[in-house]
Amino acid sequence: MSEPVTTAVRPVAAPSALGGLGLFTVLLAASLPLVDFFIINVALPTVGSDLDAGEAVLELVVAGYGVAYAVLLVLGGRLGDSFGRRRLFLGGMAAFGLTSLVCGLAPTAWTLVVARVAQGASAAAMLPQVLATIQATTTGARRAKAMSLFGATAGLSMVAGQVLGGVLVAADIAGTGWRAVFLVNVPVVVAGLALAVRLVPETRSQRPEPVDGPGTVLLALSLLTLLVPLTEGRAAGWPLWTWLSLAAFPFAAAAFWAVERRADRAGRTPLVPPSLLALVSLRRGLALMLPFAVGFSGFMFVIALALQRGAGLAPVPAGLALAPMAVVHLLVSLAGPRLIRRYGTRVVTAGAAVQGAGILLIVLAAWRTWPHPDFWSLLPGTALAGAGQALQLPNLLWIVMSEVPAERAGVGSGVMVTTQQSALALGVATLGTLFLVLVPHLGVRDALVTTLLVQVGGIVLTGLLSLRLPREVG
Fold it and tell me: Where are the alpha helices (DSSP H) in 279-322?
């Protein structure tokens, strides 16, 4: 009878605490992938005319980044657990800066598509290490504050991406035009790397596990069969392959789950351990994250199209119309930990109600002022929606990670960010497609109103799901 195999435990020194400037550094890095998910939206028309790219190729510029990012996030978290989160963070950030440079210098549309895929993969190596490092190097009130700042950064980055994109394209710095939306990343990355080398401590799991090959392949297949047809289908005219891909998704997802459960029961550590989903806060928080992120990204995409193509606003005024949302989101986010400690997770429920009221005010403003909506008519709705989002997103991120042990921080953050990123891509694909399909039949105003009312239905769902969250968060 063979001897039982034992797993050696690598002795790991307790990680240094993440200081204030170190936290700033990882949050700076966390903003880059989210800014780049949205910054390209307002630049796409200019990219198309400059590189002679059709709509389907331009969709790939967006989808290639988003899909590569979503597919590889969990793997990036696992690699950070095994080989060191600081090492993956530095490597991912450097690669993100390099691929941003290639995007900015791309001579053809297909070069840009390939560079965007590589940029998404780089982001997937970098971003999970941010949450995992926060989880492993902070505790108690410091962790709550750090997670609140991460959530504030995430929300602000998503809104600021579109604003910044419009400003950079309009400014046409040194004749760079749309290329500036990518080239702006390079000096930010250089500064971030200089800070990170000195300020970000190294952490890793005490029980590093080998990469789950079958799980990685099946997760990638599951996300690809869902996200690629949804993001490319409309521009490609919904050919047969899109329907076959969507039909294959449930089978790929079922196979992935079966493989992960088998590995978990055998004592191995799968890519997404089903036992991790036994954590109530994580499981229910992820369920709430889906409709929230779908609605958020769908709103950002649709409002940008409606204001530019329907109301005739230039990229800068269209982006600045959302500035109140960003400002209010930042301010309210900072109060998140204090509110959670006092009122528990019902703060998230209140946030859904406030966000829903804000979207309804935007609907009313669009209905009454179209085709001439302006900053002031949209201000009450965008400010209120920003406050509602701020009461949900930062607190939701904290809730999801609250019970995840430090040794599984990379896996937990990878799962959470993959859920968020996949939902962001789904929001653009579903609500964006709904809006574009309705425009020829209803006109821009009525298509916008209808799409936003559908989003309100999703907000109601997030509010109901939030009632199932654990009342208190440790």
Answer: 280-305, 315-320
